[in-house]
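Look at one such:
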Amino acid sequence: MSSTASGKNGTWRNWGGNVAARPAREVAPASVEELAAAIRRAAEDGLKVKAVGSGHSFTSIAATDGVLIRPQLLTGIRHIDREAGTVTVEAGTPLKRLNMALAREGLSLANMGDIMEQTVSGATSTGTHGTGRDSASIAAQIKALEIVTADGSVLTCSEKENPEVFAAARVGLGALGVVTAITFAVEPIFLLTAREEPMPFARVLAEFDELWTENEHFEFYWFPHTGSTNTKRNNRSAGPEKPVGQLAGWFEDELLSNGVFQVAQWVGRAAPATIPTIARVSSKALSARTYTDIPYKVFTSPRRVRFVEMEYAVPREAVVETLGELKSMIERSGLRVSFPVEVRTAPADDITLSTASGRDSAYIAVHMVKGTPFQRYFTAAERIFTAHEGRPHWGKVHTRDAEYFAGVYPRFEEFTALRDRLDPDRLFQNDYLRRVLGA
């Protein structure tokens, strides 16, 4: 996959293929000064500005008909402070490159999502997360930020410096300015033991609290039309390292998780009636396995099947009830769902518009393969999620607006007031931000 999703004749497309835009011009600044100049010039020309990462959002959060800022030259590690336990990295650095560079230095993030194609600023600005009982999203691991604001000035923020900006800008939606560098908390590299095993859906729901309590990182995938799940527990380990063998890894991650899955999606699209049978076969294909490796090799996995996704954070105590309702809805609806439902958790954090802001959260993600009609499924799922005061992932499909967010985020007005201060003329506005933050 190219570092930035793109298309022909000046059209920009996202990774999922469901969003397209035609910017007036594209800029790839090689320095913070060049970026600031591009922002000032856009303002003079009466054009809006949007920075885009790898195009991994399924919403139009990065789409613009103005100036599209591409960050591929703003990459790499600026500074490692071993004493403070931090690393400062340029905003356009892909997570994959950050993880590999940190590993070479004997360092690691405490937690991360399961995909590493995104840029660090794209991932944090949309609230990307993994799963964790005590360790939260990637944005919650930020110690300081550098941002170029609407007037072209460079602003740095942390808990001590501009703390009100720091509270909001860690998950800033691209609404407050263009992030140019991020300082993350890191720690000496450690080992994780992953235990993956199938488990009946009913048992996972019955024992969810224990599974969550007993594991540092617990997640599971439920295969609709079946009573089966695949569970994954990651816990810190003293070692020794026991990575997945190359052949086994190819077989399980490439052939089963991506290859068989891709074929299942093709068959499912051609003959939807076969999907429940395929789901039963897929859910049985993955057998139990245990392996021990460095964090990014355990947390992340390749995603070769393109999809579109909706994900909502619900209060953690509501997750079992919400999943029960989702299962009943799928059974009643006659929908044919060929993609597993992914369930993860995060502890409450203190970021204004983080999906886990102020509450322990569970994430429920529904997917459809790229190119299949997803509206009916997503609309029905969204109705269930919003009944539980769900908060949608900022980079995934949803239909919510500012009025809804003002109700589910206690600090929503704190964010919009800061935006009024930092971007009074709405230089960073686009249709998506107009909908989710209000005009």
Observations:
- The CA atoms of residues 70 and 349 lie 30 Å apart.
- Confidence is low (pLDDT under 50) at residues 1-7.
- Residues 246-270 form the longest helix (25 residues).
